[in-house]
TrEMBL record:
Residues 195-273 form the Pirin C-terminal domain. It comes from Actinomadura luzonensis. InterPro entries: Pirin, Pirin_C_dom, Pirin_N_dom, RmlC-like_jellyroll, RmlC_Cupin_sf. Belongs to the pirin family. This is Pirin family protein. The lineage of its organism: Bacteria, Bacillati, Actinomycetota, Actinomycetes, Streptosporangiales. PANTHER family: PIRIN (PTHR13903:SF8), PIRIN-RELATED (PTHR13903). Pfam families: Pirin, Pirin_C. Residues 39-132 form the Pirin N-terminal domain. Transmembrane segments: none annotated.
Amino acid sequence: MSNLERAPQEIRCGAEQGAAGELLAGRAVPLGGPRAMAVSRTLPGVHRRMIGAWCFLDAYGPERTAMRVPPHPHTGLQTVTWLLAGEVLHRDSLGSLQRVRPGQLNLMTAGRGISHSEESAVEVLHGVQLWVALPAAHRHDAPAFEHHEALPVLDGPGFAATVLMGTLGGAVSPATARTPLVGAEIAVDGAGEVPLDPGFEHGLLLLDGEVEGLEPGPLAYLPPGRPGVRLSGRGRVLLIGGAPFEEEIVMWWNFVGRTHDEIAAFRKEWAEGEGFGVVEGFDGDPLPAPVLPAIRLKPRGRVR
């Protein structure tokens, strides 16, 4: 999945710390036009643009619909696909052809440039799509794709946490991560304390059910310094977190870069059919590149 807005604006990041207990409200974004599936986008938010290196979070469903995201480009990031219901077919310019199902992880590292598409049949879809910004040392790496059917689970009183990326309480995901971070789906059944890295900032998103202190929709932000979070109830929660990302970035459309000129060059390459390879097997045209905004894009920090 991707940012399919036809007139994407610069995604700005500022420099102030947010307040403890901050709630990041989602905004409804249609994917692919007025009849397309709607998602709730909580990252980037109006104030807080990132949590650790996590820079984009769309949640969708449960809804009976079909996903059809034509080939489109990415740079400087990783895409993370996680489903609770349904099945999505991934194709990319490396030649990858992979179905992802609930409990499995699709991880695509764009690096210096990749293109991909995603499709599903008409069915109940429920899941999240996230991006991870790559640090300067790795943002020009060769593109890569990983599919993980088996992921580690951290069990504790009242919860079981499947670790998508990074490390949680000693459970380490096999997925490639380029910054210190964590991503996990926590199944809550009762009450218990989920361990956290106190050096990380974190976000909690209620995926389904009822969990005390969380409400459907917004992403709850937890600042660094917490060794754990107590969760009680019955439901599923997405946990993301990481060391605060100190680099300034430019996010626009499906690109993460460092300067306006770099983003403009990425857009030009995609518009001219260069630099991102070809997605074979998709029945349709690739997404056209939107027009750049009239103002110059500026690199920003993680909060506004």
